[in-house]
Design goal:
alpha+beta; Cathepsin D, subunit A, domain 1; 2 domains; six-stranded antiparallel beta sheet; six-stranded mixed barrel; 10 helices; 26% strand; binds 2-acetamido-2-deoxy-beta-D-glucopyranose; Acid protease; hydrolase; Peptidase_aspartic_dom_sf; Pepsin-like_dom; membrane
């Protein structure tokens, strides 16, 4: 959770106008508990702290609580006290790099948007002083995971046979068997005078004016093997050559996901990540050719001059998603270069500690990417009670960054209104002279380990095939012998009439052989999912 370290010394950018809001239709709706929820034509407001945390209010036990929205995890936790809540006497802990969220699992009625679920399970973190960051100062008192149900540790702990322990979104979708099981959200950008986006999240409906998202291609969620389904994230394939660098050329990187089609990468949508995480070679290709680029060792990010305009884009389902140059090079973190001069952060960081050792994804697209899209995530058959939305989960996206007006914004904000994007100092150095960021020994080892570990489903399959081949062989031998024996016996029967049956014992071995595989891979996945989570929030 390196980015929170960045947030700690982040400063408000003074002098910029706040984004003006065009979607606010201030019809305050009353929710079921009589509490006023900030509703904007069927959607819930999302507020933005320093472009680093996105927050909405939920109502829990009748009390309004601001929570960080995190599409990358699946549990709800809050700090402080919750009225009208019931202690299940079970406890768990969720690992984040800011510290552990640990405590008892409680239940209370929850309202979000205009939906109320009875007895929602959540983790009550009684003591938040263990966090390395002051979450209250950043405007939130908890975190709501919007990820797949299988990722919920609270649900696992409750071990509920019914759906009582399910994650919040699953509980909401379970209210109505015929609902469309999707959420949509858009995130605003602080310090961008030209943006007209208002942060908002909707459930089973789309934001007025953005209905065309429903016509966008449905991009299937790439699923992970059942055995490691607690690592399942909202992840999809990029198109082939789907990441376009600042020179307008595709940045070609090989996927670490073994089943990934040639030239395509697996990208996770994670609103809990401030800085998107990309393969190191990709980050180097974006920032290493900038004049004055420096690798910041302490924060493990590239820094570049704040006036550098870098155009990059991603391609999903044939649609290009341009990234606003204010998101590619961020002034939000108050960084300085080796001479102590203010510099900006290269937002698309090399993926290190969140690297997937099981080879389940290549890229984590955090807030720096998500500000550029209106995103729809359909949980579909991840909600088991549905009778209508029963297909496979998918994502639909609309680009919301206009390249021309983004250019104007950048010139106004970073160049004092004087367009110097054509200056010689802005030109990229030739690729052959580009800098590379340093690779640690630990990272090299991880890359090697991933090459082997990511192939575990195939190794497991291979072992099983070998195992069944052996069993098959034994049975064949056994049957042969029996047939021979039977033949002999048949002959013998003519004289005597008694055939001895041997017990068939060979199948017993199946359970014995399976269990060590199961347990060893399950424990791997625990370790790795913790790794991912710990870099996360
Ligand atoms: C949450 O509620 C508080 C108090 O009612 C309000 O001040 C704040 O703006 C709300 N935040 C959001 C994101 O709606
Ligand atoms: C929430 O509001 C929408 C639109 O106003 C309505 O269609 C839907 O039925 C409501 N859902 C619930 C659970 O009240
Ligand atoms: C809360 O946690 C902090 C740090 O982990 C610890 O120093 C403190 O004693 C705890 N407070 C309570 C009341 O348990
Ligand atoms: C359930 O969802 C469907 C489809 O969105 C809607 O038509 C229906 O009104 C909803 N039922 C309730 C009780 O909210
Ligand atoms: C928002 O701004 C973009 C240009 O940046 C424009 O194309 C779009 O129509 C605007 N949307 C609304 C709803 O005003
Ligand atoms: C909400 O959005 C719909 C679709 O654009 C529009 O027809 C309706 O008038 C809006 N409702 C309110 C209360 O603004
Ligand atoms: C980025 O794209 C805009 C719009 O196409 C263009 O005007 C600008 O020159 C580009 N900037 C760079 C540095 O390529």
């Amino acid at each position: 959770m390196r980015f929170l370290a960045l947030v700690l010394f982040a400063t408000y950018v003074h002098g910029f106008k706040l984004p003006f809001e065009v979607h606010v239709v201030s019809n305050q709706r009353r929710d079921v508990t009589g509490q006023s929820v900030n509703v904007n034509n069927g959607s819930v407001r999302i507020t933005n702290t320093l472009n680093s945390v996105y927050i909405s209010n939920i109502t829990l036990g009748g009390q309004s609580i601001p929570v960080m929205l995190d599409t990358g995890s699946s549990d709800l936790w809050v700090t402080g006290t919750v009225p009208n809540s019931v202690d299940t006497k079970k406890s768990t802990k969720l690992e984040y790099a800011v510290g552990e969220a640990a405590g008892d699992i409680f239940t209370a009625d929850l309202t979000f948007d205009n939906y109320t679920v009875k007895s929602q399970a959540f983790l009550l973190v009684a003591n938040a002083s263990g966090f390395s960051t002051n979450i209250v100062a950043q405007g939130y008192n908890g975190l709501m995971g919007l990820g797949p149900n299988t990722g919920s540790l609270v649900r696992k702990e409750l071990d509920a046979k019914d759906s009582a322990g399910d994650a919040v979104m699953n509980r909401i979708f379970e209210l109505n068997q015929t609902s469309q099981n999707y959420i949509t959200f858009m995130l605003d950008r602080r310090g961008d005078p030209g943006s007209n986006i208002t942060g908002q999240i909707t459930i089973s409906e789309v934001v007025a004016g953005y209905e065309s998202i429903l016509q966008q291609p449905k991009l299937s969620v790439v699923t992970v093997p059942d055995l490691t389904d607690e690592d399942q994230h909202w992840q999809i394939y990029t198109d082939k050559n789907g990441v376009i660098g600042p020179d307008g050329q595709p940045i070609v990187t090989e996927s670490i996901v073994p089943k990934s089609p040639d030239g395509q990468l697996v990208a996770v949508f994670d609103s809990g990540y401030t800085l998107p995480q990309v393969p190191r070679a990709m980050s180097d290709a974006i920032y290493g050719r900038v004049q004055g680029a420096e690798w910041n060792v302490a924060n493990a990010v590239w820094t570049v001059p704040c006036t550098q305009m870098l155009n990059i884009s991603f391609v999903f389902g044939g649609t290009t998603f341009p990234i606003h140059p204010l998101d590619t090079v961020s002034s939000d973190f108050g960084l300085t270069d080796s001479n102590g001069n203010p510099v900006c952060a290269g937002v698309f960081q090399p993926i290190t500690s969140a690297f997937s050792l099981l080879g389940e994804y290549d890229i984590i697209l955090g807030m720096g990417f998500l500000r550029n899209t209106y995103t729809l995530i359909d949980f579909a058959n991840f909600v088991s009670t549905s009778t209508t939305d029963t297909g496979k989960p998918f994502v639909q996206m609309l680009p919301v960054t206009n390249v021309q007006s983004a250019h104007t914004d950048f010139v106004n904000v970073r160049m004092n209104g004087v367009d110097s994007t054509g200056a010689a100092s802005q030109a990229l150095v030739p690729a052959s002279e580009g800098q590379s960021s340093p690779v640690s020994k630990e990272e090299k080892e991880k890359l090697l380990a991933a090459k082997v570990l990511s192939r575990w489903p195939y190794i497991l399959m291979g072992s099983l095939v070998l195992f069944f081949a052996l069993v098959g062989f034994c049975i064949w031998r056994f049957c042969c012998r029996r047939r021979c024996a039977a033949r002999k016996a048949a002959k013998a029967k003519k004289m005597q009439s008694n055939v001895q049956m041997e017990p068939i014992g060979s199948y017993k071995a199946l359970d014995d052989v399976n269990s060590p595989y199961m347990s060893s891979y399950a424990s791997h996945s625990d370790v790795f999912s913790d790794k991912y989570k710990s870099n996360h929030v």
